[in-house]
Write a structure and sequence with these properties.
By secondary structure, this protein is of the alpha/beta class. 49% of the residues lie in helices and 16% in strands. It has seven helices and five strands, in the order βαβαααβαβαβα. The chain has a five-stranded parallel beta sheet, sandwiched between helices. The model has no long low-confidence stretch (mean pLDDT 95).
Length: 148
């Protein structure tokens, strides 16, 4: 087993327990997981809740995206591996941005999504080092990388 502690950022979809599933399947590995704020209302209100209200939704969203990006970019920069999950709920442009940002930094990316999104995510998957279908497959890749 590796002597180092691996830092894995779990980006993307926030409407399911996939992060908990990855963590449970990685039990016993020297891994520290980080993630964005996964409370959707709290994430949406990050800007107006800290910097004040806005009349226009565009500017409220702009403030929130800026505040949230401080956490996201810091954790991606610190990560050894970035896992990006694309779920079936909502269009997750932020997840695609996180994958691109991590890739631009030279971070290994693992994508995870259902087969139905293969075509839409072909460029993202082409930049990823692995594409998994399930949280258990994500964990299997991490287990291999860490213990092999």
């Amino acid at each position: 087993m590796s002597e180092r502690t691996w830092r894995v950022y779990l980006a993307g979809e926030i409407h399911s327990d996939w992060r908990d599933q990855v963590a449970a399947a990685c039990e016993g590995l020297p891994v520290v997981f980080t993630a964005p704020v996964t409370d959707h209302p709290a994430s949406d209100a990050a800007g107006t809740g800290t910097l004040g209200t806005e009349e226009k939704k565009f500017w409220a969203d702009h403030k929130g995206a800026g505040v949230n990006s401080i956490r996201t970019q810091t954790h991606i920069q610190d990560a050894d591996v970035v896992v990006v999950r694309f779920g079936d709920k909502y269009r997750q442009w932020n997840a695609a941005f996180d994958a691109g940002y991590a890739s631009a930094l030279g971070k290994p990316v693992i994508t995870q999504h259902d087969e139905e999104f293969d075509h839409a995510l072909k460029e993202v998957d082409a930049a990823a080092r692995a594409t998994a279908r399930t949280p258990e497959q994500v964990a299997a890749v991490l287990r291999y990388v860490i213990t092999a």
